[in-house]
Design a protein that fits this description.
By secondary structure, this protein is α/β, with parallel strands linked by helices. It is built from 5 helices and 6 strands.
């Protein structure tokens, strides 16, 4: 896996023919689960996908799951939620970095590009939105993880699309 700056990941995608462009997978990495969201074919809208169980012992299985998702959804990169608003050495920040390092060590996702995107309170915002739905606790936790991933991915897509449109209009001047 190769890290890229957020805007560079999106701009590299735009350099490809429309038929060759892939989609993005958003990840909300927690200590027990990884929430997943996927972008549409135009990389404009994020939708919830699923939740994967996260254990140190199943990182190879998770890498294989990601490999399947890459081919199933024609993915071109991962947008990984990262707690930029906290200290870099916070437990949440460390667990995200370790997760990425463990995925890299498997070697299964070689050539895949990823970037980090601020997860700024995505889980808390999702909890506020879902609290009145009276979901079963298991459904509630799963929904929070998936929709936090949606928040991460949608935030990235909005930024990248807005930045690209702004740059295009500046080029016209």
């Amino acid at each position: 896996m190769k890290y890229m700056r957020p805007i560079n990941l999106f701009q590299d995608l735009l350099k490809l023919k429309a038929s060759e462009r892939g989609r993005f997978l958003g990840l909300d990495v927690g200590d027990k689960y990884v929430g997943l969201a996927v972008s549409d074919y135009h990389n404009q809208i994020a939708s919830p996908l699923r939740v994967l169980l996260r254990k140190k012992s199943n990182i190879d299985l998770m890498a294989t799951d990601f490999q399947s998702l890459i081919s199933e959804f024609s993915l071109s990169g991962f947008i990984i939620g990262y707690p930029f608003y906290r200290n870099r050495n916070s437990p949440d920040a460390i667990q995200v970095k370790l997760f990425v390092e463990d995925l890299c060590k498997t070697g299964v996702l070689e050539g895949l590009r990823y970037t980090f995107w601020d997860e700024c309170f995505t889980s808390k915002i999702t909890e506020l939105l879902l609290k009145d739905l009276n979901l079963h606790p298991v459904q509630y936790k799963s929904a929070i993880d998936k929709f936090a991933a949606v928040g991460i991915l949608q935030g990235y897509l909005d930024f990248a699309n807005r930045r690209t449109k702004l740059k295009s209009s500046e080029d016209l001047l």
